[in-house]
Design goal:
Layout: H1 12-31, H2 40-59, H3 65-79, H4 90-93
Helix pairs in contact: 1-2, 2-3
C-alpha cells in the first residue's frame, strides 16, 4: 500500500490538537501565566505525550483514573508556577523605583 499512514484523515486530529494547545500555551506565556522561558510548542508536545501515556496506563489497568489525573495536575501545577528567578520588569531594569 503506497498511502502513508500520516496522510490519512484521522491523523490530522493529533496535529490539530497540538497546534491548538500550542496557541493556548503561547497566549498564557504572553500573559505571564506561563514562564516566558518555556517553549509553548515543546510544552504542548510534553502535555499531549503525558496525557496519552496516562490514558493508556488507565486503559491497561496500570493506574486508576484518579491517580492519572493527579499526575497530570501535578505537572500542570509545575508548568504554571512562577519562575524561580523572574525577569525584571522594564521599570526595574531601567533603574526606576517600582
Amino acid at each position: 500500500m503506497s498511502d502513508n499512514l500520516a496522510a490519512q484523515p484521522f491523523a490530522e486530529g493529533p496535529d490539530r490538537l497540538e497546534r491548538q494547545l500550542t496557541a493556548v500555551l503561547e497566549q498564557a506565556r504572553q500573559e505571564g501565566s506561563l514562564d516566558r522561558q518555556r517553549d509553548a510548542a515543546a510544552e504542548a508536545v510534553h502535555l499531549l505525550s503525558l496525557s496519552h501515556g496516562l490514558g493508556t496506563s488507565v486503559l491497561v489497568g496500570q493506574r486508576s483514573a484518579d491517580a492519572a489525573m493527579g499526575i497530570l495536575r501535578a505537572h500542570l501545577d509545575q508548568l504554571f508556577q512562577p519562575p524561580a528567578h523572574p525577569l525584571p520588569s522594564p521599570d526595574t531594569a531601567a533603574g526606576r523605583a517600582g
